[in-house]
Amino acid sequence: MSLIRRTGARRAGRALLWAALSFVVAQLGLGVAVERWLPGVRDPEYAAKFERLEARRAEAPGRPLVLVLGSSRVEMGLVAGRVRAALANRPALVFNFGLSGGGSLLEAIALRRLLAAGVRPDLLVLEVLPLTLNQPGARPVEEEWLDAARLTWDEIRFVRRYSADRRSLLQWLKGRAFPCERHHHGLRCGVALDSADPAARPERTPRPTDAFGWSPSLCEDVTPEERRSHAAFATAQYEAARGDFRLAEGPTQALRESLALCRREGVPVALLLMPEGEAFRSQWSPATRAALDEAVAGLARAADVSLIDTRAWMNEDAFWDGHHLQPRGAVAFTERFASEVIPALVSAGVKPAARPDPAEVPHADWLRQR
Prior knowledge:
alpha/beta
């Protein structure tokens, strides 16, 4: 009887060992697949935006492309499908390529992905978040936000050019070693585990996104108390940027290199500062704000590009947390963006092919020309 029990125990042990080895092999194989062949699982937000962009380009072949690349402020704030613009005397396609957690590092990665895929905008509007360029402490704020598991190994190496911090590498390793845990949602959506019909896979982006890349805030309207609560949370997200001014060299250099890359690739570019509520802006000292303003303006001057400053465009009640626009605020911002920004950039020479009479361009005190 004891022999039977020992034999059974050995078999059970071998079965558990084989199960563990099979699990490890499956995880490693899946990690390789996520890295090399499943970009929609690795970075579902980017993949969904890119699919929408390619679909709009296929619908309107030959139309000039105006691409607005930025953070969740752009993602929630620009209703690109409402923008009617013309470049080179032709109607342009305007697309919102805002990405959550974005800053100079993620924008640099997205720009390189787009160029590698053959997307060369006729005009690129590149958002700058000044607070991400302030580093009073050990780490720039964008390193707190960046989800390294959404990056490829080559992109991790790119990020590490600007930061010696090991947390991004460890985060990437966890994503590849345990893809079922780290990319659980992307895997279920990507292979339609919840549906027998792959076409019926659920939405892969964190929030609903329209055909032109706009992801409206889920807060249609908020009370003053709710706005203060949301603003307190938003302020906490910028905790690493609080304090006296010290330029964050890594993100700043990433932005410089993005501008240099656009010049080499022949992509006209302008820098954009998205709206912020006055209460949000006033949480940083006047000295820090002035230093950041000069740093951003200096980057624009050095790259010989226009700087579009829309930070004071919107009233406090247009935001739901002090720096993300509610849908109605996004519509109001977009209408002004469409009527002023694109014509002014064209007039300033960002796109030489279509130069309207300067007298026809609305007065733009927010545009610091080259």
